[in-house]
Amino acid sequence: MKADLTFEYRLRDVGYCCIAGVDEAGRGAWAGPVVAGAVILPLDRFDLGRALATVNDSKQLTAPAREALLPQIMEIAVAAGVGQASHAEIDELGIVPATRLAMQRALDALSVAPDALLTDSIRLPQVTLPITPLTKGDERSLSIAAASIIAKVLRDQHMQQLDAEYPQYGFLVNKGYGTALHRKALRECGPSDVHRMSFAPMATLQQRAEDEQA
Question: Given a cut of 60, is residue 168 above it in pLDDT?
């Protein structure tokens, strides 16, 4: 499946002109923030599909391909915004509300106000704009795919920075996700200040530590 502009053009045909695609990165990670991107593409540009022909779901692209596409997307977009929710906010609110918060912040960061949204499945009850949540939206909508690339590249860069502070967890490679080496590091070192303590692996470690102290 290749992301295209079908859903954007459907919304444009019924009167919406500024349609933002929204997506997140890092929702399932064990450490670090969840990051959201929001993108409004110029639907009046006749060659838009060709100009962004290699844009697709960020998970289907290599890291170098995503990094090369980021400046291209930013140059072509009418507006782009980024928002995040920290590991502490994830622990306080839960991952779904925190993801919605990151998406709201990405929308707030747009320099142009959208009049409709396309999202990758998630609903945003706090947003009053018309929203079309699409299953596997990052594989179907070019705007969502572009947002997914922005979110993924910027989150990966953030995790690379955290790797310098916490090298024992392998954030440079795993970006905070639950690989076998990450799990091994947690057993040996315990969680760091940027781990999501509400997630099961950390909660299990914490419970084990409490049981050993009892």
Answer: yes
Question: Does the 6-160 domain belong in CATH 1.25.40.80?
Answer: no
- Of 144, 125, 127, 126, nearest in space to 135 by CA: 144
CA dihedral 186, 190, 196, 199 (to 10 degrees): 60
How far apart are alpha carbons 11 and 9 in whole angstroms? 5
Residue 11: Cβ within 10 Å count = 20
Q: For 148-163, give the DSSP string.
A: HHHHHHHHHHHHHHHH
Residue carrying structure tokens 């706090």: 126
Tell me how long the chain is. Answer: 214
Is the Cβ–Cβ distance between 19 and 117 less than 8 Å?
Answer: yes
Segment (H or E) for 54: none
Residue 204's pLDDT is 77
Q: Are 98 and 34 in contact (CB under 8 A)?
A: yes
In whole angstroms, what is the distance from residue 59 CA to residue 20 CA?
A: 20
Cβ contacts of residue 42 below 8 Å, gap of 6+? 48, 76, 77, 78
Q: For the chain, which residues make up each domain, given as ranges? A: 6-160, 167-213
Q: What is the pLDDT of residue 210?
A: 57
Q: What is the DSSP letter of 18?
A: -
User: Does residue 212 surpass a pLDDT of 60?
Assistant: no
